[in-house]
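Comment thread on ticket #2218

A.B. wrote:
> Attaching the input chain for the structure job we discussed in standup.
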Amino acid sequence: MAIKNYRTQIALPAIAAGSLPAIWRTVHQGKTDKNFWPRLGLSFLVSGLAEPFRIYERLRYNKTVAAKKIEHAPVFILGHWRSGTTYLHNLICKDPQMAYVTTYHGTFPEIVLSQLGKLIFKNFMRFALPSKRQGDNVQMDADFPQEEEFGLANIHAYSFYNFWYFPLESKNFYDFIDFKNVDNEVLSIWQNTYIQLIKKALINTQGNIFASKNPVNTGRIPQLLKLFPNAKFIHIYRNPYNVFLSARKFIKAMIPSLQFQNISDAQIETHITQTYTQLMQQYFADKALVSANNLIEVRFEDFEKQPVNTMQKVYEHLQLPNFKTALPHFNKYVKVQKKYQKNKHQISAKQAALVANNWQFALDKWQYQFPDNLIIKQF
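C.D. wrote:
> Ran it. Output below, let me know if you need it in another format.
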């Protein structure tokens, strides 16, 4: 058991693929517990080994990236973690016209276009990457669509995803969602980095329309509209009871390979409760900023039953082109996904009360009740 724990503590977190300045800024945003010092040291070592490849990519490709035009409004998939965002993103990215951040791009955001860099680090990633994601059994591959928040964090360190490394500081990292309490320089860095990341995704995956899945963006509508006034938004939502249990299981499965701080189960539940409340209330306040024809809201339970029909409604509402071309790709992916086995959950009376007491605003908004498929256990 001791060996297993030691290996967990030195496992490479996503931050190891980030730039040295980003790691340096990140680790000064929280206190690393002593048992994670080996992991931190290994992260700096790997980052240092990759730094020459980052420098080469900047010198070789920055002009190409700068010259790239974002000709179509991006499509942003919004929704709290564990609300169905991954399935929706994977499906829409089967459309050949869609560009996206890959798992490799989202981990090594500054070594994307260099062929030698990709040859080395992508193969390394394929060797180290599990075939299925911890926490929910979703299949993984270096070229599969991925959310971009880890990638943004690995470039500049101004990210809510720093909570994975320093979970006890998660309330402070919310500033990197809405940017209300950060200076203009940080906001400008985030804006420029995001545009560059999207341009690289367009070049790398050779699509025309950038499709993003980033739950953090659920609280960033004003910032996204400043960058892309005609941006399209798909918000997917799910029964909050199921979101709570799924998020709890997912974080408990993922955080051992990422964290630099120890955290208890109770603290994880507090993090989930507070983040959901703040994020969803932010979304409810900001969604009116989006014109009606640029926002569609999708109920996960309906999407799960009829994913292709839902996609047709999305394309029609947002006036996205080429649905007929994408249709056979959607049908093929949905057919394969029928074999996917979801995690099964049980909820304690205490956890059920936690959801009811804190997230009643969402339950009422979307008219959700306690799910029939959940059993309350007294534990």
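A.B. wrote:
> Thanks. Noting for the ticket: The radius of gyration is 20 Å.
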